[in-house]
Amino acid sequence: MKKVLVLEDESSIRGFVVINLRRSGYEPIEAETGEQALAQLRANPDIRVALLDVMLPDIDGFEVCRRIRATDSKIGIIMLTAKSQEMDKVTGLMTGADDYVTKPFSPAELTARIDALFRRTGGADEPEQDTICNEPFRLNTRNRTLEKNGERIRLTQIEFSITKLFMENPGKALSREDIFKAVWGREYDGDLKTVDVNIRRLRIKLEDNPTQPTYITTVWGFGYKWGF
Ligand code: CA
User: Fold this and answer.
1) pTM higher than 0.85 for the full model?
2) Could you write out the three-class secondary structure of 76-131?
3) Which three-class secondary structure state does DSSP give residue 39?
4) How many Å lie between the centroid of ligand 1 and the Cα of residue 91?
5) What is the phi/psi pair of residue 34, to 5°?
6) Rounded to the nearest whole angstrom, what is the distance from the C-alpha of residue 71 to the centroid of ligand 1?
7) Dihedral angle of Cα 12, 16, 22, 28, to the nearest 10 degrees
8) 82 alpha carbon to ligand 1 midpoint, in Å?
9) Whether the Cβ atoms of residue 161 and residue 120 lie closer than 8 Å to each other
10) Most exposed among 40, 82, 200, 220, judged by the fewest C-beta atoms under 10 Å?
11) Ligand 1 center to residue 43 CA distance, Å?
12) Is the pLDDT of residue 1 over 70?
């Protein structure tokens, strides 16, 4: 079964999400508090996507995200944010979330996001070359890992997808819209901050000096490029 963790303290919203997930063929695992969510993840290591509400009675959703990411870089994480919490998007992404959905959201929108994350975490990729080498990096598409100078770099699924896109297109300027569409698997929806925040996070992991990037370089007024 395709297990999805649903962390939401408001039972009406949680119930709505759960019903819609079941209808789309997922098995929702419910949690009302941050601690419950972490316990559910320990009990269900096969959960592949987690939906995390931000405002919770115990620890907030960002902290839950941070704790999950401390031990698990593979699971897909979607933050459920309120419209008034504009900054939540950036904070959430910086703590390791892959995506966010703003309340109120439609069931179709939410399942589309979950489907996209499942596709990325599923390993049901089309047959392709196993490794892409671009010194000092070596990217393995089969087990979705990246090494720099032989050392494993821990990436989230989104970070892996962005790196793969870059390494498949060395030297090509990619617009932020292109990156969004290729990595998140849907049309640009008016907020490209997601791309920038992920690039910022990725630079911290990949670059020798993140303030003077040489691998992921900026194409001013357009987007980003792998190399010069
Ligand atoms: Ca809440």
Assistant:
1) no
2) EEEEEEECCCHHHHHHHHHCCCCEEEEECCCHHHHHHHHHHHHHHHCCCCCCCCCE
3) helix
4) 16
5) -60, -45
6) 24
7) -50
8) 9
9) yes
10) 220
11) 23
12) yes
CA of 10 relative to ligand 1 center, distance in Å: 6
Under the banding of pLDDT at 50, 70 and 90, the label for residue 88 is: low
Q: Copy the structure tokens of residue 153.
A: 């770099």
Closest C-alpha to 163, from 147, 187, 186, 185: 147
Beta strand spans in the chain (E)? 2-7, 26-31, 49-53, 76-82, 99-103, 131-134, 137-140, 145-148, 151-153, 174-175, 216-219, 223-226
Question: What distance in angstroms lies between residue 54's CA and the mean position of ligand 1's atoms?
Answer: 6
How far, in Å, from the CA of 35 to the mean position of ligand 1?
Answer: 14
Q: Which residues surround ligand 1, an ion (CB under 5 A)?
A: 9, 53, 55
Buried b (16+ CB within 10 A) or exposed e, 18-49: bebbeebebebbbbbebebbbebbeeeeebbb
pLDDT tens digits, residue range 170-185?
Answer: 889 999 999 999 998 8
- Across the range 115-121, mean pLDDT stands at 82
